[in-house]
Every structure is written in C-alpha cells, then in structure tokens.
Amino acid sequence: MKKILFTLLITTSTLSITSCGGNEEKTSETGAIPKGMIEYDLSQHGTIGLPCLINIPDEETGKGLPQVMEGPLGGTQIIVGKDFNIEIVVGDGDMNQKKADIAADAVFKSTYIIDEPTAILYKSEIPDAGVVQYHIYVITKIGNVTYEIEDVRGEENYTEEGVKRMFEAAKSLRPKAQA
Fold first, then answer.
1. How far apart (Å, rounded) are the C-alpha atoms in residues 147 and 55?
2. Helix (H) and strand (E) counts in the chain
C-alpha cells in the first residue's frame, strides 16, 4: 500500500512540475500556442459564438478573465483585462478600403508598424498633441466566410504591447475541428 501511495505521489508531483512555468509554447491539435496565451473555443457562446478557436491572453498575461459578448458592431467581442479588446465580425475583408479610410482621417496621422496583405498594425497620432493610439485590422477567411478582426475603440488607449498581443490573437483565428 505504501509503495502504491509513494508511486502516486511521485507521478502527481512530476506532472505538477512539468505543467507549471517554463518558457515553452504549449501545443494543441491545431498548432503552437505562444507563452502567455491560451486556446479559446468561441463556439460555446450561443448566438454570438463562432465555429472557431483563437489564442487569447491567459489570466496572468491579460490581467483578467476572458469576457465574450456581442460587440458594438454586432460581432463577437473578446475582452481580457484592460489591454485586450477585439471584435470579430463577418465582413467583406477589403484591406484597400480600410487603408483608404485610415488615410482619409483628418485628425489622426497613421503609420504602419506591420503591413501584410491581410493584416495591419498601425499607430495613429495627433501631431503636436501627444495623443498616440495603436490599432489592428486583420482579415481571415475560413471556408467561405470572411472575418474582420479589429480592436474595439473606446475609452481605453491600448499599449503597443497589448495591441501586438491582439494582432497575434487575431491572426490565430482558425476553424474548430468538427467532433
């Protein structure tokens, strides 16, 4: 009996040690999940749910628990803490139109930090006013549905680090495997 308990204790301790900490990426059946992120199933949210998975900040990295709700544009909004707030909507995915809208802004001058064919991360600022904002726009096509993912604009100004996390999360949107 003591040998069985000792074996159980050693096995449990080993599992606890290997599952804590470390700098390694976690993996799921759909790929690598960066450190500080978790794979989140969006299909569990009824009418606003999507048949998709996405990587979002874990509770420690995001400084809060995930909240999923209907967003201001009628899409699926995901909030984690104060520095992560994105909305996923079904749309046309027109990058040229988005860039034209950004360029036409009479108040903010914008520069692209990351400029890819289906994803941009940009800095918008009011010259001489010290106002700086970071934003994302990512287009992901899953099957015959095009999703647009953007940061939700509101009272919060997100840090550059937070927006980079939103950008990586948006790019991780992928279909959920059928059970």
1. 16
2. 4, 12
CATH number at residue 63: 3.40.1000
Q: What is the pTM of this model?
A: 0.82
For 36, the token pair is 């500080």
Which domain range does residue 64 map to?
Answer: 38-175
Residue 3 covered by a domain: no
End-to-end CA separation in angstroms for the chain: 41
Q: What whole-number distance in Å separates Cα of residue 145 and Cα of residue 158?
A: 29
In a domain, 116, yes or no: yes
Task: Provide the 8-state DSSP code for 43.
Answer: G
Q: Give how many domains the chain has, as a whole number.
A: 1
Q: What is the per-residue pLDDT across 100-140, written as a single tens digit (0 to 9) for each?
A: 999 999 999 999 999 999 999 999 999 889 899 999 999 99
